[in-house]
Structure formats: C-alpha cells, structure tokens
Amino acid sequence: MNGRNADAHAAIGNARLQPGSEALSRRSFLIGSAVSMGALGLAGCATTDGLSRTEAALMYGPMPNEKFPIPAVDLSQVDPKYFRRTVRYESKEAPGTIVVDPANYYVYRIEGDGNATRYGANVGRSGFLWSGEAYVGRKSEWPTWTPPAEMIKRQPEAAKYARGMPGGLDNPLGARALHLYQNGKYTLYTIYASSAPETIGTNLTSGCTGLLSQDMIDLYARTPVKTKVIVLPA
C-alpha cells in the first residue's frame, strides 16, 4: 500500500461512524424536525400572548341575543396583548375596584389575591387625558349618547345629536356604559363599549375609555353602582 492509499484509508477510517451513532444522528434529526414542525403547528393555533385562537374566537364571538346583535370581533385588527386575561396585579384596593392605566392602554378589575382581570382599551387623546378617583354613579345598557356643549363647539357636525342619539351599534357609547361620578356629579367621562377593534391601544377619545364590546359587557355585569374607579396618570 503506497502512502497515498494509506492516507486515504486512514481518512475513511477516521470518518467511519461508531456503532449506533448513525441511528442516533438520524433519530436526533427526526426528533428535532418533529419539534420544529410541532412548534410551527402550535404557532398557528396560539396568539403571541398565550391565548389560543379558538379561545379568542369564542371570547370575542358574536352575541346574537343582544337587543342589537353584536358581531364577532375582527381579531386581525387587535394586538393579542390586548385580549382579556387574568394577570398578576398587586394592589391594596378592594376586589371589584377598577383601575384605568391610559399609559399602557389597559383597564384592570381587581380580583384579589394579587390577581386582576385585564382588558385592552382605547383612551383619551393628548389634551383630554385626566387622572384621579371617581366612582360608578350610573350604569346603562344601549345608552343614548348626547354630545356635550364643548364637543359641539369643536365639532359642529355633532349638533344634530344635541337632543340625544338613540342606542344602537352606531352609537359611540355602544352596548354598555359605566358613567363616572365625583362628589355626586357626573364627570362626563365613561367607560364604554367600542365597536371599532382597530382603536384598541390608541389615543382616540375626549377622555373616555373604550373596551371591546364583549369585554365591556363582561366588566359591566360584574360592576355594581358605587364601584371605585382609579384613573392613573398617563
């Protein structure tokens, strides 16, 4: 055997797999591929916030039994981080208290034991944000919307509703509203149901706070009159 052949055989010998190593390598590849494919499959079934798309579709599905049937939310227009969920939220406030966090576009309902139900929201635009404490002085289903005089001055087209716009899907207050009071007086601010999913996570209103209709109906059902509401600084 000449030197060249010796070198060739040495190279082949060094490259030869140890017993069982080929099977192990193939098995590792198959397992890795299966994990990768499984991850891709799961990615198609879950939102980025851990809520499955099936769960989200059920949570935000149509509500045909309402006075004005509410359609399903177009989930493609909502960042999944704004979907309703239970989160850790340390607070000294009593269970049931509502905390509005306009800086992060969330509304929290304190549940106790360090937990809260969190809802995505739209909030007041620049110049209309406010903070402080209030309470729910009145609740209404499919409320009439009456634009305040200040709004009519800014937006004269709202004058046609000066005597009130009847409840309905086109009404800005939507299916439910919690009217906020201070010292026995209506502040003109509400937490209301929005039928525009693309507005969640934006600064849109004249100081009111909007939730998806399905979320607002959930919060409304669990919020009695006199509930404390805290609006944090933006």
Keywords:
234 residues; alpha/beta; L,D-transpeptidase catalytic domain-like; 2 domains; two-stranded parallel ribbon; globular; cell shape; hydrolase; TAT_signal; cell wall biogenesis/degradation; LD_TPept_cat_dom
Describe this structure in words.
With 234 residues, this protein is an alpha/beta fold. It has two domains: 3-45; 53-231, L,D-transpeptidase catalytic domain-like, CATH 2.40.440.10. It is 26% helix and 26% strand. It has five helices and eleven strands; from the N terminus they run αααββββββαββββαβ. The strands form two sheets. Strands 1-4-3-2-11-6-7-8-10 form a nine-stranded mixed β-sheet, with helices on one face. It has a two-stranded parallel sheet with strand order 5-9. β7 (176-182) and β8 (185-194) form a beta hairpin. The longest helix is centred in the first third of the chain and has 25 residues, at 21-45. The radius of gyration is 28 Å and the shape is globular. The termini are far apart.
In DSSP terms (H or I, runs of 4 or more residues), the helix count works out at 5
**H/E element sequence:** HHHEEEEEEHEEEEHE
Q: Major sheet: order of its strands?
A: 1-4-3-2-11-6-7-8-10
CATH class of the largest domain: Mainly Beta
Question: Structurally, how many domains make up the residues?
Answer: 2
Q: Average pLDDT across residues?
A: 83
Query: Could you give me the name of the CATH homologous superfamily of the largest domain?
Result: L,D-transpeptidase catalytic domain-like
Rg from Cα: 28 Å
Q: Would you report the number of β strands?
A: 11
